[in-house]
Design goal:
285 residues, 78% helix, 0% strand
């Protein structure tokens, strides 16, 4: 008869073997799985900083640019300059204003005389007589002055002393004197331009020498030739030179230009005087 006890022994042995296998193989995966689960969690903080977010551009607030005043400019020259430097600047300023005043006034005067020359060519010589033509000219103009002088000399050729000179010579002398007066009037002021053009560079050069002298004095007092010690005086010297040239160049150019225009006007004035003389001698008044 089959005994149940014999069956229980192998079954117990089998169960014990299974328990041992499960204990051997089942216990090891759990720590490995836990370690595998913990590694991504541990690596996550380590890899997270690698993917940093894109930087946000922060615009700096607009800062207003402050105007830096030039410490070696013309304003600084006037504020820091001594009496000699300021006096030199004032002299150059007066010379410049005088030259420009002469240039503009002479241009206006020459323009008026050119208009009078055109009027004399259009109306004076087409008049029936010299007196009628003179009345057509502008009062106070150069051509009216010459015409009046010629008519007066022709009408008043009388007297003991005047009669000793023939009428031809007397009228010619009167007209020539009138032309000479007009020429003197045209050349008025040109001497100012010539003086300014020839002396302004030397006045500026004097300011240059004075500025260099001040630079040498500062070097001697400080005992060192640093740039901050000599920049101011040397800058003054250069500015003085530039101002002297800026005053002289327009004066010289204006002088030459006005002189050339005067020559053109004087040619017309002399031609008018010569024709007037011939007409007066011919007796057509």
């Amino acid at each position: 008869m089959f005994s149940t006890k014999a069956l229980r022994a192998p079954r117990a042995t089998l169960m014990a073997a299974l328990i041992a296998v499960v204990a051997a193989f089942g216990a090891s995966p759990l720590p490995a799985a836990a370690q595998a689960a913990s590694e991504p969690a541990a690596q996550a903080p380590a890899t997270a900083p690698a993917a940093a977010p894109a930087p946000i551009e922060v615009k700096a607030p607009a800062v207003a640019e402050e105007a830096v005043e030039n410490p070696y400019g013309l304003k600084a020259l006037w504020n820091q300059g001594d009496v000699v430097a300021k006096s030199t600047l004032v002299i150059l300023l007066i010379m410049s204003m005088g030259s420009w005043y002469v240039i503009f006034t002479k241009l206006f005067e020459q323009r008026s005389m050119l208009k009078s020359a055109e009027a004399s060519a259009d109306s004076f010589w087409k008049a029936p007589s010299i007196k009628a033509g003179a009345s057509e000219l502008v009062e106070g103009s150069a051509f009216r002055y010459i015409a009046d002088a010629g008519i007066k000399a022709s009408d008043h050729h009388e007297g003991t002393m005047v009669e000793q000179i023939d009428k031809h010579t007397w009228v010619g002398m009167s007209v020539e004197r009138a032309v000479g007066s007009v020429q003197s009037r045209l050349t008025d002021g040109l001497a100012v331009l010539a003086t300014v053009g020839s002396t302004a560079p030397f006045v500026g050069l004097f300011g240059t020498v004075w500025g260099i002298y001040n630079a040498l004095v500062k070097i001697g007092i400080s005992g060192q030739a640093s740039i901050d010690k000599v920049a101011g005086p040397v800058g003054e010297a250069l500015i003085m030179t530039a101002i002297g040239l800026a005053v002289a160049v327009p004066a010289v150019m204006g002088y030459n230009w006005l002189l050339r225009r005067n020559k053109n006007i004087l040619d017309r004035v002399r031609a008018f005087g010569g024709d007037l003389h011939n007409v007066l001698i011919a007796g057509k008044r």
